[in-house]
């Protein structure tokens, strides 16, 4: 039996408690009368809940605020080290772990190469890195609320079962249940793109007023849609598969089993593969020198670096990728008219020239007058955004406030 249970959104008490806690978290320091106004509860109701949270050591009185005539009101703040949340980003090339405290500050982070994509071995690596991170952080284990694991692929909502992960070659792996056998706290497995966009939004801006789409341009290509009340999953839980929109009939084979998907042409893996094939076919390119003649070593970064230096082959590969990504984004804009599209992932680190190419392609393909107010921006949260999102998913879904 887990010490912390899932947040029950139908429980008025849990909701009120969470709203009050989030209000204190956002404000950093706040008095009870202002909380009451913000969350729409009476002052006695706020007092009863805040007294309970103080007694549990979750919030504390940090000092006194300014008087508006009578007594100076007490200011409340969150106790940073009362609870911890662990986020794990399971990537094809590296596994990243963060430990986040109750004020949502990252207090520890670590990255290691992915040792194996075999389920048993990867589960061991996730378990070991999680326990090592908690030990290194020197926080008591009973203060860890849970671990949010961000995994690429289709994840069954609720059970955290990996239905299909093309990048890992996984079908029907009960990742959440398996990790629960090894770890003494809650485990939530979520799609990596969804974790990434949650990590980005929480770090860079407030909640969306209509719709935000985050697009992950990395080893694969995926996206997540966030609405004002949280992530949009779709009726089957598979929304956001922008990378598997087919843009080329009879195109390259894609890891999903189809041909001509955006991912099969424009992902980091596809960009490297295109260069490898062309150079093997004796097309001149400075990428050949960059990989020291070993074509297996070619990665997307080498192709981007060569493109920036004016290499013709690299430029044509990068332009083609940007064009197809732009096409996918134009489809998204025509369909959803989101307030913002946040581009994230390794490919966005290649610089403005690639982003500019993508934006140009978007305006070429999007319907005239559609999406006039859509902003396309680049994520700012860096390499740990997905792991941070994993930790946030635990904080948003587990009812740590009702524990004793
Ligand atoms: Zn595909």
Short description:
With 404 residues, this protein is α+β, with helices and mostly antiparallel strands. It is built from 13 helices and 18 strands.
How much is the radius of gyration in Å?
A: 23 Å
The CATH homologous superfamily of the largest domain corresponds to ATPase, nucleotide binding domain
- Oligomer class: single chain
CATH architecture of the largest domain: 2-Layer Sandwich
Organism: Acetivibrio thermocellus (strain ATCC 27405 / DSM 1237 / JCM 9322 / NBRC 103400 / NCIMB 10682 / NRRL B-4536 / VPI 7372) (Clostridium thermocellum)
Pfam families: HTH_24, ROK
Protein name: ROK family protein
Keywords: Carbohydrate metabolism, Xylose metabolism
Structural notes for this entry:
This is ROK family protein. It comes from Acetivibrio thermocellus (strain ATCC 27405 / DSM 1237 / JCM 9322 / NBRC 103400 / NCIMB 10682 / NRRL B-4536 / VPI 7372) (Clostridium thermocellum). Belongs to the ROK (NagC/XylR) family. It is built from 13 helices and 18 strands. It has three domains: 5-78, Arc Repressor Mutant, subunit A (Orthogonal Bundle), CATH 1.10.10; 84-201 and 385-402, 2-Layer Sandwich (Nucleotidyltransferase, domain 5), CATH 3.30.420; 206-380, ATPase, nucleotide binding domain (Nucleotidyltransferase, domain 5). It is of the alpha+beta class and 404 residues long. The chain has helices at residues 12-27, 32-39, 43-55, 119-137, 175-182, 192-204, 262-266, 268-280, 287-290, 300-308, 312-336, 352-365, 385-397; strands at 5-6, 30-31, 59-64, 74-78, 84-90, 94-101, 106-113, 144-151, 154-155, 162-165, 170-173, 186-191, 212-217, 221-227, 230-232, 340-344, 375-378, 398-399. The mean pLDDT is 92. Helices cover 40% and strands 22% of the residues. The strands form five sheets. The protein has a five-stranded mixed beta sheet with strand order 7-6-5-8-12. Strands 15-14-13-16-17 form a five-stranded mixed beta sheet. The protein has a three-stranded antiparallel beta sheet with strand order 2-4-3. The protein is globular. The chain starts with a strand and ends in a 5-residue tail after the last strand. Bound molecules: zinc ion. Zinc ion (ZN) is lined by residues 244, 254, 256, 258, 261, 263-264.
């Amino acid at each position: 039996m887990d010490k912390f249970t899932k947040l029950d959104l139908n429980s008025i008490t849990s909701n009120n408690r969470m709203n009050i806690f989030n209000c204190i978290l956002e404000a950093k320091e706040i008095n009870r009368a202002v909380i009451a106004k913000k969350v729409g509860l009476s002052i006695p109701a706020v007092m009863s809940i805040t007294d309970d949270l103080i007694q549990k050591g979750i919030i504390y009185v940090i000092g006194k605020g300014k008087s508006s005539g009578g007594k100076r009101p007490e200011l409340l703040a969150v106790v940073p080290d009362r609870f911890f949340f662990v986020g794990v980003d399971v990537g094809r090339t590296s596994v990243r772990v963060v430990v986040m405290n109750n004020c949502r500050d990252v207090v520890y982070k670590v990255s290691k190469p992915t040792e194996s994509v075999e389920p048993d071995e990867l589960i061991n690596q996730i378990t070991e890195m999680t326990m090592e991170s908690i030990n290194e952080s020197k926080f008591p284990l009973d203060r860890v609320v849970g671990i949010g694991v961000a995994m690429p692929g289709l994840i069954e909502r609720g059970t955290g079962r990996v239905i299909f992960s093309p990048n890992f070659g996984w079908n029907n792996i009960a990742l959440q249940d398996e990790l629960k056998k090894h770890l003494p706290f809650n485990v939530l497995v979520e799609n990596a793109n969804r974790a990434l966009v949650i990590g980005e939004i929480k770090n860079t801006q407030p909640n969306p007023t209509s719709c935000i789409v985050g697009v992950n341009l990395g080893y694969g290509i995926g996206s997540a849609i966030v609405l004002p009340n949280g992530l949009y999953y779709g009726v089957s839980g598979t929304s956001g598969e922008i990378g598997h929109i087919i843009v080329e009939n009879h195109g390259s084979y894609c890891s999903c089993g189809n041909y001509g998907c955006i991912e099969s042409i424009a992902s980091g893996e596809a960009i490297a593969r295109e260069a490898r094939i062309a150079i093997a076919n004796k097309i001149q390119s400075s990428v050949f020198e960059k990989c020291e003649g070993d074509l297996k070593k070619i990665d997307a970064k080498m192709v981007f670096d060569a493109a920036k230096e004016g290499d013709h082959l690299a430029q044509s590969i990068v332009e083609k990728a940007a064009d197809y990504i732009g096409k996918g984004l134009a489809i998204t804009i025509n369909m959803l008219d989101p307030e913002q599209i946040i581009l994230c992932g390794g490919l966005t680190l290649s610089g403005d020239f690639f982003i500019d190419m993508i934006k140009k392609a978007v305006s070429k393909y999007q319907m005239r007058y559609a999406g006039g107010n859509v902003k396309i921006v680049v994520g700012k949260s860096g390499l740990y955004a997905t792991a941070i999102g994993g930790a946030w998913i635990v904080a948003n879904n587990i009812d740590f406030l009702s524990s004793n």
